[in-house]
Amino acid sequence: MPPNDLIPILDTTLASIKPGEPIHDDTFHQLRVLFPESLVLAAFDIVDRKNVMKYTTSWGRVFYQVIGSSVTYSVQPDLGHSPNVRFYCTCPAFSYTVLLAESYFMCKHILAVVLAEQLNECTDRPSNPNDIANLVAR
Ligand SMILES: [Zn+2]
Fold first, then answer.
1. Where is the SWIM-type domain positioned along the sequence (predicted)?
2. Ranges of H-type helices in the chain
3. How far is the CA of 93 from the centre of ligand 1 (A)?
4. CA 20 to 30 Å from 31, out of 12, 17, 74, 111?
């Protein structure tokens, strides 16, 4: 199934997740249909560790960073109307398994960001010009 066909299914699955409520078994099941179980568990682990950072600029632009075990990755969970690439992450897995092999349609970092947004578990960071410069330079 082309990745873009999976996005509405993912959106429906995410919509069933409510902040402050336990994740329903059906939701886990749907996520495991869309992604390998290890990727789903890794994404929830990132959310549990509060490793999703959200930066909002004074002009309303939103950036995300996910703190990995040794490297921090920049994530764009929604590139708007780009027809081919709807998400972006700076991790190697995104380049290899999503863009080149097309074996998955998002990496664990992007899934963690969309889950964290849905669960209201992003760590909001005030963004100053240095942060933005770092994000742009990645
Ligand atoms: Zn990634």
1. 73-118
2. 3-15, 25-34, 37-48, 92-93, 108-119, 129-137
3. 6
4. 74
Question: How many Å lie between the centroid of ligand 1 and the Cα of residue 41?
Answer: 14
Tokens, residue 85: 């690439």
Q: From ligand 1's centre to the CA of 95, what distance in Å?
A: 8
Residue 98 CA, ligand 1 centroid: distance in Å: 9
How many whole angstroms from 40 Cα to the centroid of ligand 1? Answer: 13
Each residue's pLDDT tens digit, 25-84: 999 999 999 999 999 999 999 999 999 999 988 888 888 999 988 899 999 987 666 666
Rounded CA-CA distance 112/5 in Å is 20
pTM above threshold 0.90: no
Annotated domain spans of the chain: 3-137
